[in-house]
Amino acid sequence: MKLRKNPLPNNAGDIACFLLIGLGVPTIVIWDLFIVLPAVYEPGSFMYNFTFVFSLFLLFNLVSNMLFCILVDTSYDPKILEPPQPGSGDRENWHHCESCNCLAPPRAWHCKTCGICILKRDHHCIFTGCCVGHKNHRYFMLYVGYLVIGSFYALAYNLYYLFVIRADIYTQTFYHFHMFTMPILLLRGYAVFMPAIFLMLNLVAVSISACIFLVHFNLVRRSAVFADKDRSKFDLGLYRNLQSTFGTRVNLVWISPFIKSPLPDDGFHWPESGDQRLKEIS
Ligand SMILES: [Zn+2]
Ligand SMILES: [Zn+2]
User: Fold this and answer.
1) How far is the CA of 109 from the centre of ligand 1 (A)?
2) Which ligand is nearest to the CA of 116?
3) Which ligand does the CA of 109 lie closest to?
4) Global pTM?
5) What is the pLDDT of residues 96-109, one digit of tens each?
6) How far apart are CA 277 and CA 282, in angstroms?
7) Where are the domains of the chain?
8) How far is CA 130 from CA 43, 80, 253, in A?
């Protein structure tokens, strides 16, 4: 596995979004594990221990998939594979990249932010500061997937904490929610204000991550990416499409990004729907 040489975000927007996740996730996790959880379950009880361990599993997969997404190099290096000779192979599907001044393989597109061509480029992710493409698509999808599960899980506990355990403060306040609700809570002190802020952040995290995941999963299930003009061209059936993104061990990748799952495609040649080569590959 080849790693990126400069994995840090390289513009102000990417740095800001990266910090939002980098600071927001740990803050919510500390709040939920050390304030909310002991208030919901007796420390040392089965449910307390189970929830604590399950939360650590979600956090591990969220962080490690994010790091793999950032670190894995999915760019096209002309030194590794030269274009096919004129008149042979997929040559007619290769295109010239003016920025790199080289022929780039099918489905590889240039990213102005990263300054390089990306294999099966999907999009430039502002929350990781890198492009999502052929080799890190799996990690991106699981990173967002665990963000969705983790934020829904946290939301369930936050709602229970605010509207059951501390119902005396929040039930009436949020029942009559209006534009001055949050300032009124702030006037009652940080101990009252901060739980409401965490709930708001949690709602934002659930909404954004769920939308991103649904949009991208809808593309992945058809083996499509944002950059493809013809989004059904590479649709080889659901299971093969999932393997194209998650690798041949698609049923195991949710356990950890450290589980090896080789990709069936090399990133340079792409079988199309009804292609004869598909029969040879499968
Ligand atoms: Zn390029
Ligand atoms: Zn990029």
Assistant:
1) 6
2) 1
3) 1
4) 0.91
5) 999 999 999 999 99
6) 9
7) 22-74+136-269
8) 40, 21, 21
